Structures
1.
Amino acid sequence: MSVNSADTAWLLVSAALVMLMTPGVALFYGGMVRRKSVLSTMMMSFAALAVVGIIWVLYGYSLSFGPDKAGIIGGLDWVVLGQVGQEPSAVYASTVPHLAFMIFQAMFAIITVALITGAVVERMKFSAILVFSVLWLTIVYCPVAHWVWGNGGWLAKLGVLDFAGGIVVHISAGVSALALVSLLGPRKSFLGREPMEPHNIPMVALGAGLLWFGWFGFNAGSALTSGGLATSAFVTTNISAAAAAFTWMMLSWRQRRPSLLGTVTGAIAGLAAITPAAGFVPPLAGIPIGIVAAVICYYCMLFRMRRGIDESLDVWAVHGMGGTWGILATGIFASIAVNSAGADGLIFGNAMQFARQLLAVVVVWAFAFVGTWVLGKIVDATMGLRVSPTEETVGLDISQHGEGAYGGQLR
Amino acid sequence: MKKIEAIIREEKLESVKRVLEENGYFGLTVSEVNGRGRQKGLSLQWRVGEYRVDFLPKLKIEVVILDEDVSKISHAIANSARTGEMGDGKIFVLPLDNAVRIRTGEDGDNAI
């Protein structure tokens, strides 16, 4: 096994693209909250970059990808990057330095933690978010990543297909968001039915643009090589994003007017859904996958609101349900002709693949929900999850960070 | 002297300014304000569904005038700011004790 320059270059660029998605999430979420909490919302994403970036190299990577222990978790052989160097790994991405694969995976862990924070904006204590993030990464993310992607992981051995993280990133983030909110409760203003106007929609659009851009690294980079498969995943990704953005645009138009906020939300839903499928399905499958993703996520968001649940920025509706649909869609549209390491799906006569995908969805939904709920309970009992009512009224920017977003009004 | 505070539509600033000029009042203060009247705001689109914005952006014009001009000016402002639709705004007339021109120290009607 030797290092291939082209593959290494593409994977490093992809890692950088995925890194940029987390600031993208910061902008995407930051624009949707009220102006008194924009900094705290963005800070939650940047904190993931700061905290997970360290945890990952200390032990997160080893727990996720280290030598397998009973299909459940990685061993500790690779903590503090022991045995992870410039030579390729024996089992992962055999044409690039092991370090390149490690840092590419680091960016996935970071953005998954950042995604969850969209559920808890404007009321969760910053210190509690930090502690929860470390616990969650260790207890929920690392095992799930190992099951699905680790060499010897039990879902991987079962033949479950998740190209770039429909389960590992989107279902785990979306379902965990819902579990965390069930403990945290709604914002006071949500309860009081006060108008909560998104304070900067251009910022949301900029964040969505960065996410769409970074997603090429996320999905096409997950080919781990720079040839035809990466290209196919790249094309499929763009098709699904476009199809879902267009569908949401039409849904909002049918309701009233074609909304920008809705259109960019649709794009993210389409991107989340195509994530597990990108490298397994024919590119044009991106059209049905994207259209259905937008419809499912749209109605899940309506359902969430009608139930009066303040899962504030719809991590569950967009990422959880988009990812769930994507995993099932992979079981429908996957084709050996696209990726010989994949499988045929339902429409190519292999119903078993669909059943495997469904099993993985059920298992990870349950594990992520229960795991997050328990961790959230622990944090709540020891340090508390919420800021005080006064701090919430003042806004988290001032109360948690001592900063104001838009100063200089008078001088 | 009296102070007029007129809450008007943003797009009516130019016509109100013009009618004040025509009546000899060049000095005025304009601020961006938010408020509501009987109309109670409007609804905008969220990612799905809608949310209600109960305070709408308006402009507030403050101008100080002579007592004898009160009726003329308030009607001139009203006529120039009117569309006939809901949300045209309101005009308030307030008594005023005094005014001082900072540069010269003149006060009373001479300072207007």
Note: Chain B touches chain A at residues 41, 44-54 (CB under 8 Å).
2.
Amino acid sequence: MTAHDRLLRLQRSLAVTLVARALLVGAAIAFVVLVIARTLLLPAWSVGLATLAGAGVAIAMLLRVRGVRSLSRVALWVEERTPSLRYSLVTVADGVRSPSVDAQALSVPWWGDAQKALLKSLLIPGLAALVAVALALFIPAAARLGHGTFVGGAAANAKVTDVLAVVHVAVAPPSYSGRAATTVDDPTSIEALVGSVITVSGNGDAKLVTATADSSARSVAQRANGWSLTLPMPARPGIVRLHAAVGRDRLIVLAPIADAAPVVTLLIPAHDTIVRRATGMFPLHAQLRDDIGLRDASFELVVSSGSGENFTFRTTAIARTTLGGRTETTLDARVSLDSLKLEPGDILQLRAVARDGNNVNGPGIGSSETRALRVARADEYDSLSVEQLPPPEEQGAVLSQRMLINLTEALVKRQRTLTRPVLVSESQRIAGDQKKLRKRVGDIVFQRMGGEPLSEEGSDEIANSGKLTPEQVLAKADSVTNTGGAVMDVEGDETPILAINKPLLEAFNAMWDAGRALEVGEPAKALPPMRIALAAIEKARQAERIYLRGKPSTAIVDVAKARLAGKDKGVSSVREPRPIVDPVLRRRSATFERVTSLIARDPDAAADSLLLMRVDALGDAPALAAALDDAARALRKRDNAAIPLAWVRVRRALGGQPVQRAGVSVWEGAP
Amino acid sequence: MSDFVFATAQYESGDWDSAPLVPANIIDTIARYTSIDVAPSGVIVPLSSPQLFRYPLVYLTGHLPVRFGPSERANLQRYAERGGLLFVDDHNHDIDGVFHKTATEELTRTYGPIKPLGKSHSLYKSFFKFDDGPPTTSHELNGWGDNLVHQTLSGVERDGRLVLLYSSKDYSSEWNYHPENKRFLSVDNTKFAVNIVVYALTR
């Protein structure tokens, strides 16, 4: 084989190697771009981008193949690697046919080294292409078919996707509710009344679909155009898991809505009642409400009779009314107390009762508060039979000292026109009033001094003993207070009790003088002591007022606090121990954090986890359950705008509302 | 009795208790600015009582006419001889008012002529420095009472020492608030009380 022949063979090998290398590098670039696109969850156009990138690189490299068409350039490529040829091979390539040149071109075996160099140039691109293909195959997202994001999977997968791609749910509420059936496509959660019939359906072969609800298998039926699953809405939250032969499971949360019992409010009578005799008509009025519809309502009456340990009861219902599914109405009745034949001591207890039309897990029964009507016993003296009485005689008859003076002055003016007996009679009447007033003043004095008020005997005693001197009265008061000593020696150290009561005692004695003058029919002589008594009473009032005003308020300074050396009371910043987080809440928060970290890798799995959390929260945290539903729905739709908002809602539902705690100072602006 | 006890004078006539929060406020001020052992609450001492001599400083105020009884006057004279300082403040802040007229008359009869104190008096430097003399009160500046800003205080000295300090500036109104409310003031207006107490204890 001549050198020219070997050069031609090398030219062909070089061309093939360059083409292969371009293809390998292009493929590697395409798969690397594809892996990056899948990792970043880019949409379907990213596949075209990868193909374009790979093809572009390959074409750019293929352009270099044009140089191989020149045999001289091939010879120069060999000469570059084997300098000992001394351009003999280039000479051959230029068409020189000389045996010596040919022998020189074949003197060195350059073709073996050239082949090795070609193979070596394919090694790195080949390895790169292999690694890129392996990455594309082994990344989880690469094996997934998610909502058409990537179409580069097996055809079988596409078939499974069709089975669970679209799920229809039809909800037929129970007949008693009177509500219409509804349908919804591709739901994450179904909220319906307990007992509603739920039909889940989809396209495809029923054999490819299995279903479980609350861990128990449910039969999937074949319909004309797909599969179907029927189940009732349970009383407790649950989850339906749809499983296809290949691919992801679909989860649908069953969120039951409980039918609330009727709310009954008894408006009349508004409170319990006690009557002395149970006669006449007794009006009853109640307000009824229900979320779905009321079926019937009535008033229940219970009459209890007897006392001690022996009681008998009578129960009856009145005004039973069929309401026909109304959600709000009133119930009125009038009960004849005569017909109940209530005896003294009997108690009539009454309430309103309403039932709804729930024939699934009901009926729901609601009742009002119970009111009692009691018939008073004969020996019972309760508040109803209190009769108002006029004020006692002595209170009404007592006149003020000023009024007595006015009466006496009027009597003095009429004195000349009156006969002596009439004058004495009128004067003695005023004297009687003066005596009563004197007795009241005496009572006040002695009560203040700590003793008993003047009794009739005491009054008589004083009356019998005649007018007391101030010394005698004060001595008597002193005997009551057990102070002892010369009580009239009040210069300098007069006690407050004596200081207040001395004017009253002066009035007391003046009234004595006035009374004696009036008793004998001398009203004109009675006036001076009566005025003295009035002045003394006024003086006593002033003394009392001045004495009370003299009490200063006491303020004790916390010296240690003023010197900033006191104990820290912690008033401005109350340190409270942080509340222990509810274990359930802590578990849910931890689960939610794990779900959050799952979003980037597998959003569908994260959505399923959210639905499982929703089932757990439906019973005790409805706000959290609603937020989880929104988050799962947003995640399923890949709604990048709604996902952060839904996440914030879930976090708020988990953390609760912000609480303003006592002791935290309120920001009031910059100083 | 090692603590300083702030005493309020009780006299027979008038309303001696018209500024009930002043003692607590001054006690708080003493505790705040000095290390004087001060009793946490004040006392009320009758002017006629021998207990008057237990207290080196006695505060007297009121709105109504002041008429000392013979025992009160004699006791005050002995109190001055023994070095006690009587601080009298006109709660009316009115030199035409009945308190000023009657009190100055009674005090002159008891202590002798009352003379104004110069701004260089040691009272104004005994603790805090008041270069402009006695601090003004809001009642003066607002034109209440006699509508005058009194430039000086008055007093009577014996042997170079004040035994009577008379004020028409109405510190009784100015200082008559609960000490807890002092935190709302940008400048504590009770500092002059420290000077009075320190003067009474050190001169």
Note: Residues 98-111 of chain B form the longest helix (14 residues).
